[in-house]
Records
---
Amino acid sequence: METTTAIDPAIAAGPQATSRPFARIRRRLIAVYVLLLFVLAASVFRLIFTARDSAFEQALRHNQLLARVLEEHLARTYGEADKVLQGAAEQIVAGGGLEKLGEKAVHELLWRRQNRLPQVTAFGALRADGRLFALGTEYPVLPVDMSGAADFIHLRNDATDMFFIGNMALIPSAKREPIHLARRIGLPGGRFGGIVRCGIDTEYLVRFYEDLAIPPETVLALVKPDGKPIFRLPAAEGLSRLDLSNTAAFKDGRPAAHRGHFEPHSPLDGRALLVTYHWLPDGGLGVFVGTPMERVYADSDRFALRVAAGGLLIALLFGAFFGMILRNLARQEKLALHQRTAERALRESEAKYRALVENIPQRVFYKNRQLRYLAVNRQYAEDLGVPMADIAGHDDFDFHPQALAEKYRQDDLRVMASGQHEACEESYVRDGKRLTVSTIKTPVRDESGEIVGVCGIFWDVTEQIGLQERLKESEARLRAIFDNVQEGIVVVDAETRRHVLLNPAFCRMLGYTEAELMALSPPDLHPPETHSRLEAVFRNMARGIHGLVRDLPTRRKDGSVFYTSVSTTAFAFDGRPCFSGVFRDVTEIRQAREALAGSEASLRDAQRIAHIGNWELDLASNKLHWSEETFRIFEIDPQGFGATYDAFLALIHPADRDRVDAAWRQSVEQRDLNAYDITHRLLFPDGRVKHVREHIETHYAEGDVPLYAVGTVQDVTEQVLAEEEIRLLNETLERRVAERTEDLARANRELESFSYSVSHDLRAPLRAINGFSRILQDAEEFALSAESRDLLGRIVRNTNRMGELIDDILDYSRASQAALERKEVDLDECARAAWDAHAPAYPAATLRLGRLGSAWGDPATLRQVFDNLVANALKYSGKRDTPEIEIGAREAAGYKEFFVRDNGAGFDMQYAGKLFGMFQRMHTDRDFPGTGVGLAIVKRIVERHGGGIRAEAAPEAGATFYFTLSHGA
């Protein structure tokens, strides 16, 4: 068989061809050296500029941190001082103002508050005219006119509740120039009552700043929102002339932002500064921190010098390194000539095995140490689509894409470096199709054992790889389904009964992790009473009996039990018999089923108890469906009932049958839902009669075609009989009411006659006894003995009392008999009229009258209620130095309750039951005069208005009478 060997063109061309690549390499090395010098220079400049940027950012962060610390300290300092000022202002306002409190009281108030804070000095107060009123450090003070002070002018004109921060200025009796802080004294009605002010000691601020160990060149300033600095460290003259409002920290005369920075020139000291500013949360003061730009870039400038020196040193090292490479290249050029001879001998040996490698199906190649092809077999050349003669002397970059050729090169270098053969898989695209080959590469050694190249053999495994990938994709799809299905899936070893596979849904269902479930067996997941059932399921699966296990109790990790439906099957998994189960949580379905069964049972019970049945009539088939209770009402055996409309009509009493049928047909024809709401009778074979009430609703299809009717039937026999009995009773009752009305009218006439007799027949002899006794007292005053005069006095008093009793009896009679003319009554007017009538007799008495509202009742009798209760309250509290009467109303348990309360003698509640009886009294007539009829009259009037009355009291603790009126009163 003829073989072909690829010859390196460089070897065939001789020494001149061999030297040309070395010349190109030298030119390239020189170009690379120049490029490296350029990159080095660019890197040096970049490092220098990066260092300057980093220095700027570091200084900026340092300034921001310092500004935030100073802001927080300043906010706390001013906040504490303002809190003290606010407390002083509120206490002065509560005391009525500065003049009302007096200078000494204000001095003590300021002195106590000034001692609370170390940063506060010169605590003082100015009057509304601007004169100094008091100081916390001295007493008394001269009333110096300070009406021109900025804080006084601002707070006098601005009525808002905000504190004012002023500039550093001398305050009388202060040894330093503090920063002013002031608050307005706002009197009631918006009146200006002066200001309270204090100074923030700048020495206190300086000590805090010194404790921070701030670099001496750092500039700190406190700036107001108008751009005017009020404090600077280090201190500088002319601070009041400075203005920062034209810097980047301000916009349109106001702070531009809560925080920020600007540079390079700052009006703080005229130098180039990096200035960072933070404003207090209320925007009343800003903290400005400045660092000189030479300080900012000092370290970066030193770093730039070091980087430049390092870059120069690296350039020199690169020069030395490339000089060594060029010298080594010259030596390699000499070695190439010697190598040519060795390669000639290699070609001769190559012919010996070429016949072998040309005929094997695998692709074979051989590369030299420079990774240029020395030989390939025919199959390899055909794969490349290049003649074999055109392959030798070339490298992979001539035939493959850059990335693939680089990979081949790295693989070859690794094999030659390790001296070991290596198997790998490689992919490439040919004719638009990606191919995968399996390659074995082996280092090639010469006679001395030195590695002189690499040999490789590979074959196409694209199809095998595709099969493996499709298998992986199939497994991935199955795994995705397995992991994402909502039902829990579990696989159990048939012999060991241990879990071998679980999906996430099963873990979530039981609340376990997969590792925890793998350590458990199926019996661990179910209550003990289900284990025998579970074992039976396993035995059935072992015999090939599969199916659905319903309502299997399953226990979660937290101990709770739910119900599952499990589909079981047996199969082989990894070569061993296994059982699988698909779990579905059916707890809600089971609960719904149980609830439905319970609801149906409850419905049957409810129908049975209420004697209400339901039915449905299919109008197309004339089929009638009755509930159990309907059958009980009609007393029919369900098995013997024809279940048709005609069968139903046959059960109705003959006298009612036509009426029922007509009502049913009318409801269907007129679509009137109320047409068939009817009560009729049922006639039973034994002659008994039942009364039932039925209601029907008919449902229609399109075109007003009736489809079916649903209805209810209720046994109303007892109601009908009861109504009949009630009707008879009502007739009897009406007759008895008429008789009783006549008796009552006759009794009222007799009572009126009695009242007339009491009013006239009893009063006449009483007036005579009283009159004759007074005449006898006047005529025989000196003739009678003392005992006789006393007896005559008793007669007069008792006749007077008898007259009062008669009057009270008549009043009680009128309260019981008088007709009530009901209208809207203003109860507030009734209470006020009762008070005006009785209060003049008790000039020391006071009244608290609440809102009573109005009520529907008789005006005259309701006025008498308040008149009796107010008179009673004044009488029993009249012995107090200051009788106190309260009349009011309150909501209690859904109704309105009125009350009259006094602070009088009160009474013992154990006798409260006798309080509202006729002539019942809790005190003797000597202590409190009266007949004991007033409260009985009140009770009678309230009861006639549909209400009630009660009392609460205690001895010597007053009494309260509560009464209600009905809503219709």
Note: Confidence is low (pLDDT under 50) at residues 1-13.
---
Amino acid sequence: MRLKACISMLLVNVFILSGAWADDSQRWIDSIYNALSPEQRLGQLIFLKETQNQKVAYDYLNLFASNHFGGIEINYNHQSVLDTLKKHYSFPLLISAGAGYNIPKKRLMPSIFTMGAIDQIKLIEQAAVYRGERFSLAGIQMNADPLFELVYSIQDLNASYSRLGNSGELALEKISYLKAGMDVQGIISTARLKFDFSEYPDLNRLGPEIRSIRKKSEENIFNESLSHINNPYLSLRLENIPVNDLKEAAALQTKIVQQHFRNLLNFNGLLIADITEVVENEIGPAIRNEEELEKLLFASGVDVIITDKPERTLSGLIDLRDAKILRAQEIERRVKRVLWMKYITGSSPDETDQDLPEEEPMPDQSVTVLQYLLYKNAITLMENNQGLIPFRTLDTVNFASLSIGAATLTGFQETLDSYAPFVHFVLGGKDTGRESYNELAGKLKFFDHVIVGVHRKMSKDDLEFLKHLQSYCNVIPVLFDVSDETDIPSGFYNLLVAYENNAIAQNIAAQMLFGALEAKGLFPVAQRNGSRPGIQTKSLYRLSYMPPELQQMDSETLMKIDKLVEDGIQNKVFPGCQVLVARNGSVVFEKSYGNYTYESHIPITNRSVYDIASITKVAATTQAIMFLTEHGLINVNEKISKYLPELVNTNKEHIILKDILAHQAGLRPGLPYWNQLIDRYNEYDEVNVSISLDESEKLNPGAYSGIHLKDSLWQWTIRSPLVRRTSKFGPYPYKYSDLGFYMLQVLAERMLNQPIDEFMSQNFYEPMGMSTMGYNPLCKLPLNRIVPTEIDYKYRGGLVWGKVHDPTAAMKGGVAGHAGLFSNATDLAKFGQMQLNKGIYGDRIFLSPETVELFTTSIGTNNRRSLGWDKPDTNEKNNPASKYASAESFGHRGFTGTAIWIDPVYNLVYIFLSNRVYPTARNNKLNDLKFRQKIQDIVYEAIRDYDTSQVSGKF
């Protein structure tokens, strides 16, 4: 709904109130007023403030039933309070959403202050309409989160839009949209009112000066704001009161509130004060307690006081009435003003009893997209010392994270794990104190970068601790509880403001720190020089996380993966799995299912690490060969014996490198090395036991691999027979072979003069921030992060857990060219995205586009393969990929039940990881049912099913 439509509906409402329905409203107001006792009329001027420790909704019900208080302000999303009052309290009630309230469940919207950091007006418009609809559905009639601020002084009435950017016309446009979204739903908006009489402190001397304020304010850039004053759906929330006694309060009421606001500006809304928020140091020094302050507020013209002690407030009102400070006519005027607000917002008894409509105003996926875009455009980088953020270097620095004000590991910290290896710390509310800070400082000061998620208002102790830590390392505070400029600490070299403590803000803030998203937000409050802090950054094109609709995919279609996977677990296709889908450089689907084993209660999470088996061929060995090719150290059209002279005068002398990569070199699929080992050395002879007994070389209890064994394996490979040619001089047929990658590993390590595991970690995995991908995972990860594979009594003596599943790779010490890599889906997706980016990831060049193109293009001639990579097959029976995958796509599968597939035409990366070999590798349901392909089919269907009308044109 566009703004003009909102305003048109608003004018209709105003016309109705001023026309035929005016008599009806007056009759309704008079009937309610006359039915109230004198004390109950005073009760209408008191709103109860919901407190955090209030547990029983019926306590509120009893208070309303006995005193007929005018309304309640909900702050803590206690839906039971609203439900109880609506069900059991029939008297019309005005319900206000306090600053701590937000739309329930997953349909929250940013606060007004957060939206002040957004400069995209179309997003503000969509948020405005949605906020109004959601508040109406929730049964809310007033929003206490201030839209703007009025500063009243003798010199001028200035409408300050500091909460929405303080940038003149743009701020006014934001206000117009946000207010119209509430107006159309009949919901009262709020403005903050401050008095500033510092240049004219004697209120009793005020005279004709106030008459000139209107004329002066018309010359102000914000004069349009005054049009909101006489709008029926506005309340003014008093921030301070510059009076010392009842005499001054009476002067304020008569000369400012009544003559100016009510008469000159035609303000007919409520003037409200929250006694718990009026700051004591802004009050005159003669005021001694809240009870006295409440009397001054009422005497100053305040219509409604919001309090957590309503009975005390009522007693003070009775005293003012009995002392004739508040006369009967004034009380009647204020009470009927409250009743009129109830009438125009629809909070009559008939409507209060109605059930709320079940239909949601906006589809879930559209809400998610709107939420994501709002926070993405709001989060603000305020300080960035020497361009530290976004982090570019990941492999030569170490990271720690600290959460302040959180009891457990946060979503923010979990998202950080997606970008780099982290050591996490948590400082909960009970852990504060000098001893806790000193202990933390002793641990954190040795890290290069410490990212601190502050999930509460930063205390003085927090501030001192972080500034002390800043002298040792780079400290990057990320603030998740900012509702005002006073919440921003000074003195930090790096500072990110995320504004709100929710899952979406936490996720996006982590992405910005690592350049997956650019920083765009501008802090709502201008500085003294008129500028708004907000440092803009550029994306480094690391994988981001976005709702599917933002990448033209249908989220409901993707949800079909859930049912398919659940059926797979139920039918024991695999105990659990990870599925990840990325499109256009953004992860749009990432889920983990099931448990480590069918008997285990350890759930699979996104941090769980799998043995990815033959994906090692493309994620390690092929990459090393690509690197060597790009640097001119080898030529894939040359014979392998050119680089490995021990192959001269063997049956492998004339094998061409590209034929090995394409599995058409005449090599056998594999050799029974383990059987040869047992036969030759009589059940693990001492010759095979490594002197060092390195745990990484352990094969099973009592048996270890070693340098002698590796040499034997190489000699057996050299002497292995070839398969038969189809013709004497023709090419070898396509035959998938592990042996070729045994040989390519030897070639790579010799030309690189470095073990392949070290080379890949140093040149690919660590620079890309892969904290899980690598060989021999127990060297850096705890066992409980690793998913077990097969129960193998024949070779391994039991459950294979934390060790490579492939027996030959195990005999090579866990590092092999054909198997041995472990990873989670996140890290494998980074690798896939690097291929999709033609060799670039995180603003770093790993391979040239020409090299990636060479190795991922099909070689043709009766072989679907490219160099190292698998390709789609036109024969559906043999197709390793989805039937929808493009001919340009490429990927690989792993024996343990894994797959990666990359499609440049659709800009897709698809990851599937499972341990289908548990409890036995004879379980072949995954292949028989084409399970990996079926999930991939759904991914393509989500692109096909995307309905542009759901999102396109709105955002």
Note: The radius of gyration is 35 Å.
